[in-house]
Amino acid sequence: MKKMPEMLLGNRYRILEGIGEGGMARVYRGMDVKLNRPVAIKVLYEQFAGDPDFLRRFKQEAKAAAKLSHPSIVNVYDEGEEGNIHYIIMEYVDGYTLKEVVQRNGRLKPADAAQIILQICDALVHAHSQKIIHRDIKPQNIIITGDGRVKVTDFGIARATVDATITYGKSLLGSVHYSSPEQARGYCADQKSDIYSLGVVFYELLTGEVPFSGESPISIALKHLQEDIVPPGKLVEGLPAELENIVMKATHKEQNLRYSSAAQFRDELEEWLKNEKDLNYGNNSLVKRMRSYTLYKDRQGFDKDPFEEPKETMPDKKRYLRKKKYFSKKILIYTGLLVFLFTMLFAGYKFIHNFLHVPEVSTPDLQGKSLAEAEEELESLGLSYRIAREEYNETVPKDHIISQEPPAERSVKRGREIDLVLSLGPDLVEVPYLIGSTQLEARLMLSELGLNMKVDREYSDEIAPDYVIRQDPGKGFQLARGEGVHVVVSDGKRPFSLRDFRNWELEDVREWLNLYELVLRNIDEEYSDEIPEGRVISQFPASGEMVQAGDNVDLVISKGIDPDSYKTYTFEIDPLVSPGQVIKVYVEDVEGTKTVFEGTYLGELITAEGVGSGQVVLMELRNDEYQIIDVLIFP
């Protein structure tokens, strides 16, 4: 892991030591010197820190994730930059990742696995209620503390890395085993994508292995798209059927057939745990088998072979005749063997003699010649051939010779068989139609055909981001494996500068965002002494920042002045008009408009009270109409 000298970020966060690396950042243990508490510091890799579009999305998602507050979610405290160093400050959790737990202990007991998934469900319920999707649920992003509590990290931040993973070659790697089919296609992830990924994590906890594996991330992604998951009960004998059903529903390829929410997923787990009583399931004790044997003994108490033949005593004459007959047979057998051996030696001599005297010829050079030409030339020399194998070749035409054995100009006996390697020509495949596919789908299709993909990107008002606009060569064109197809992928609509919404009415902001295809994500409310109720106090991203269609916008709306902060002002008013005049005195303040005095003025002082801020207005009746003669502004 790359070392970083001990330094102070933001004049507050001290880096102490490296503790890990992830897909987008190095992780350090640090200390918040202002609050004197340990923190985890994620420092972005250099290639991400140099991408302004990535940084814009990353900061937006990090600030959104910082609003999450849940005991099963690792808190995001802060984000910032120090020179070229971009960092996130997170809660420091002392424990092990769930991946490390599985690698060390293997599959878990069903009840233990269900308890862990239950806590992750709780975290997802909270995040989804805040419209934040994790997008990268996997055991590496789940920490188990020493007392068994679950902590999920990297909430919401995964969205910023979607484009970057393709751009910088990080691809899917550790995440692809847990990615939903819609993510493998390159589509937007939603709540049910998190549910699918969590179902795969549950599968791994119960069986000790992921449902799909392969030699490359692409092959695994295709399995998520095309192959059915093997039910975990087929891998673990005696697994409760209810848990298997929960896993299979969570990991259904069709989104509408999965759990409708993380809360529904959690409720079914809680119901099973409530009914589960055998918490000792999964004890893998071994059963020992014993073997025994007995020694046969006869009833008299001594060892005896029950299959042994009894011996008989023969008369001497019979023994003599038997021996004579035996020796006669022996002589006949030996004589026959000698005759056979002599015959074989003679035949072998003739064979070797004839072989050694076969005339020799020099093998011709057949490389590059057609099979017909090679056959004719070999036949003229008294040689034959055998097609050892056929293989694709980019330079040797189809049905021509690539190589031979023995090689050219080697002396061989007439009748010798020459091994030939025959060309199938270039390994050509047809280019598929890629326009309208996502970038990831196009890469998967080309990879399966052995073709490479060269990507350029451009803005488009018609084509959604990450979809192919055009390709070269087009559909049906034949290319040799290893060659590349050039595609142009949409970057979506051209970024533009965000308006300043401060002091706007909420409905006016909604209308503007819809017009420019931006998404109003979170609306918070705060009291304000300056901004009237119902108007915008602040926004994220800030005015002037570059955004494009599909980006999220968060607003803080004024609730008006805090009632607890209102101050009451008392005024003694001398109207300075002649007694007998008809006057009217009213107050406009945060509570509305109220009349203090109306009628014939008799010369006394008039008392008025105003709350918060506003004005006291004095009016005089002239020609049957009230006219303003004085205004007092407060405070």
Word description of this protein:
- There is one protein chain.
- With 635 residues, this protein is α+β, with helices and mostly antiparallel strands.
- Helix 10 (241-250) packs antiparallel against helix 11 (262-275).
- The protein is elongated.
- It contains 15 helices and 30 strands.
- It has 6 domains: 8-91, Phosphorylase Kinase, domain 1, CATH 3.30.200; 95-275, Transferase(Phosphotransferase), domain 1 (Orthogonal Bundle), CATH 1.10.510; 360-423, 2-Layer Sandwich (Trypsin Inhibitor V, Chain A); 428-490, Trypsin Inhibitor V, Chain A (2-Layer Sandwich); 496-563, Trypsin Inhibitor V, Chain A, CATH 3.30.10.20; 566-634, Immunoglobulin-like (Sandwich).
Defining traits:
single chain, 635 residues, alpha+beta, Phosphorylase Kinase, domain 1, Transferase(Phosphotransferase), domain 1, Trypsin Inhibitor V, Chain A, 6 domains, four-stranded antiparallel β-sheet, 15 helices, 30 strands
In CATH terms, what is the fold-level topology of the largest domain?
Transferase(Phosphotransferase), domain 1
CATH architecture of the largest domain: Orthogonal Bundle
- What is the radius of gyration computed over CA atoms, rounded to a whole number of angstroms? 44 Å
Count structural domains: 6
Query: Biggest sheet, in brief?
Result: 6 strands, antiparallel
**Strand fraction:** 25-35%
Mean pLDDT comes to 84
Q: In the CATH hierarchy, what is the class of the largest domain? A: Mainly Alpha
Query: How many strand elements?
Result: 30
Helix content: 25-40%
Helix-strand category: alpha+beta
